[in-house]
Amino acid sequence: MTKQSRYSPEFRERAVRMLLDQQGEHESQWAAMNSIAAKVGCTAETLRKWVRQSEKDLGLRDGVTSDERERLKTLERENRELKRANEILRKASAYFAQAELDGQAFLRRPK
């Protein structure tokens, strides 16, 4: 169940590149973000998040890279699946252990 992104990765990369190329033409990075965001059709805050993530991916800023984030999601998903499987196995084991005890008690009954 992955969330469908409104913008493609190529679109995001192009918008970030546009910002990096044109930020010198504006008085601040935020002003450049507002200008570029209006041109490409996203919000300035969305563009700011893309730029910050790009900086993390390039090692220019501290934080979790996109690859690390994907790996964490994969590991968390696998962990949930394994916990679910272990719970099923635990319940099945208890059920069969109880069935075996019930069967043994049945065999020991006097006739």
From TrEMBL:
UniProt feature coiled coil, ranges: 65-95
Name of the protein in question: Transposase
The organism of origin for this protein: Chromatocurvus halotolerans
Lineage per the UniProt record: Bacteria, Pseudomonadati, Pseudomonadota, Gammaproteobacteria, Cellvibrionales
GO biological process, one term: DNA transposition
Annotated GO MF terms: DNA binding; transposase activity
Key words of the record: Coiled coil
Signal peptide: none
Sequence similarity: Belongs to the transposase 8 family.
Record bears the keyword Coiled coil: yes
Transmembrane domains' residue ranges: none
Pfam family, one: HTH_Tnp_1
